[in-house]
Amino acid sequence: MIAIRRAEPSDVDLIAPLFDDYRGFYGHPSDPPLARRFLADRLSSGESVVLLATDETAPCGFTQLYPLFSSLRCRPIWILSDLFVAPDRRGQGVGRRLMEAAHAFARAQGAASIELDTAHTNTAAQALYESLGYERDVEFRHYVLSL
After folding, report:
1. Helix axes 32-45, 12-25, angle to 10 degrees
2. How many DSSP H helices and E strands does the chain contain?
3. What is the pLDDT of residues 114-129, one digit of tens each?
4. Residue 82: what pLDDT?
5. For residues 79 and 69, what is the distance between their CA atoms, to the nearest angstrom?
6. Residue 99: closest CA among 112, 116, 111
């Protein structure tokens, strides 16, 4: 049975290994102390919301959301920055359950939307997002300035 709950700062040691694996999925070198420190800072300061999926024995996935505001809609929006499911738990609905929990959380906060980016090659995630009603943005271009 999978349970999903909002993570507390005291959960950082449960989430950090998954977060380190998430970073590795996107080509970043493993750095468990960095992963732990980053999550601890976000959770202790309230800068992000992490929803944690656990089974009877261990954490099996998470999603991390960051708050923003839409000037055009005059409402909050949430950026779904991270979604990760442990490789041995994929294909069991954990990602979908995390996404649905994120939707419920954002609605309860009065959000106008949830926005996300994913790699062009991450077709499994794209299929999940599209099955949940997400639409690929064709109106706006996404730009990045690396600093």
Report:
1. 120
2. 4, 5
3. 999 998 999 999 999 9
4. 95
5. 10
6. 116
Which amino acid, one-letter code, is at 43? L
pLDDT digits (tens, 9 = 90+) for 37-89: 999 999 999 999 999 999 988 999 999 999 999 999 999 999 999 999 999 99
Phi, psi at 130, each rounded to 5°: -65, -35
Amino acid residing at 76:
P
| CA gap 87, 84 in Å, rounded | 9
Spatial CB neighbours of 105, under 8 Å, sequence gap ≥ 6: 6, 49, 51, 65, 78
Q: Within 13 Å and on the Cβ side, how many CA atoms surround 65?
A: 26
Stated as kind and residue range, the H or E segment containing 85 is strand 75-85
The sign of the dihedral angle between the CA atoms of 48, 98, 118, 32 is: positive
Question: Which pTM does this prediction carry?
Answer: 0.93
Residue 76, strand partner residues:
69
Residue 8: both structure tokens together: 């507390």
Measured distance CA(138)–CA(87) in Å, rounded: 31
